[in-house]
Each structure stands twice: as structure tokens, then as C-alpha cells.
Amino acid sequence: MTDPTTSVGWLGAGRMGTVMITRLLDGGRPVQVWNRTRSKAEALESRGATVADTVQDLAGNDVVFVMVSTPKDLEAIVLGEGGLLSAAVRPSVIVDCSTVDTEASARVRAAVNAAGVGFLASPVSGNPHMVEGGEALFVASGPREVFDRVEPLLATIGKAAVYAGEGEQARLVKICHNLYLGLIVQSISEVTTLAEKSGVDRAAFLEFMNNTVLATPWVKRRTADMLSLDWTPTFTTELLRKDFDLGLAAARSEEVTMPLAASVLQLIQAAIGRGYRDQDFLSLFEVQAASSGMQLEPKSS
After folding, report:
1. What is the pTM of this model?
2. Domains and CATH numbers, the chain
3. What CA–CA distance (Å, rounded) separates 112 from 295?
């Protein structure tokens, strides 16, 4: 059980980090925040957060959460010059919620453990809107006692945290999750494009699909965006490409065939080449339609 007096630091106040921090603040947990772009951290002061001047300042907290984009960012922010482990006083536990490969995670874990600090890999499933509504789900791996200490904090942010094992299992779970998500968005894009180009109303088709045994909560949640063609990013196409790269690398390492995922990676690359790099990955629908000779128009529900 996490002591109510446990101090919390947070490194990374991007779209996901911001709503996760806000969940902790709203749950009565003071949080000290650092972000490379300081104004993003300062935007949380009105909610009760305090802003750290340096990464090392965060290291004085009992538990420090990390939410960054890439393995390189994680290693730099924890192990690099001016990173968390370079501080004179170190946290008791570092919780990394990023999506990175197992190799980078293992390197960071080994260095963190050698410094006498606990390390928990705890990537999160859910976009910022889901996190804001308390619907996020964590998968975590590391020493059980570290998970037990941090779990109440994770439960404050999301609806639950699943413990997956002592090592890097959580990383692979999240990578597989994001591979599946990419397959889902490409699949619904293809069949919706076929239906609409054949003369079926897009709203009617998606309404039908959302009430069959094939319905998924994710497609239901994103149907309004597919109708309005709103690609405001919740998770960008570039970040999805990064996760597919990680997933296919893991598949090569384990000698697992991934023919569908390999094909979808090329379609993600095509979307980035067409200018959708920083758009929501659901923009794969528009790319699929364009590749099929169809210009999509916004529709009402």
C-alpha cells in the first residue's frame, strides 16, 4: 500500500502525461512535474502541481513516473548526464509508463537496480480521453513488492493495473496491444471504404457493424471521428509506426511470422509519406479511401 505521504514526481507532460498527472492531482496526490518544454508543466500549476527546474530535482521524490516517446528518450532521461540517476538523492522507485522495447527497458532496469532504486515497467492502454475518464488500464512488470507499493497510484490514474511478471513482460504486452490496434484500424478502414464506394452510407454501415458480434468498444468510440474525418491526434501515425517497428523487431527475435502486421506497417509508412505523420492514426481510413480512388467527405451520424 502506498503511504499517503509518498511524494510523487512526474517526468513528461505531453498529451498523455498531462491527463495522467491531472488524475493524480484530482485524486489528492501532490505531484512535482518536469517537462522539456517548461510551459507544459507550468500549465498544471493551476491544478496544484509544482514545477521542477531540472530532472535531478525530481529525484528527491519517493516515486518518479516517466512518460516519454522513445527508448532513446527513456535512457537519456534516466541514465544520461543530468538524468535521474545522476542526482545526489535518488527516488525509491522509478515507474516508466512509456512504450519501449524490452532491450532498452532491461538496460535501464539493470542500471536503476544497480543504483539501489526499484524499477517498474508500466505502459498504459488508453488515449488521453480514456485516461481523463478513468478508463485507462496499466500492465506492469518488475518485482512484486515494487508493484504492490505503486499499484494504488496506478489505480488513481486508471481503472486497474494488471501484473504481468518480474521482468520485461509488460513491454511486450503493450507492444502486442498496439500491433493489434493498428490491425483493427486498418481492417475497419478497408471494409468501410469498400462499403462506401459500393454505395452504402458510411453512418449506416458503421451503425450495423457496431451492433454485431464483431463490434469493438474502440471502433464504437471512434465512429464519430470516422464520420466527421476528425484526425485530431490522440495517438499519432508516427508513434504507431514506432510501435510497429518495435513489434516486428520482437517478432524477428522470437522467429514469429507477422504477415498482417508487416503489411500494415507499409500502409502506416504510406500514410506518413502522404503527410499524416502528426495526425491521429485513424487517418489511415482517409489514406485507404484515397488509395481506392475515393475522396471522403465528412458525414453526420
Report:
1. 0.90
2. 8-167 (3.40.50.720), 172-291 (1.10.1040.10)
3. 51
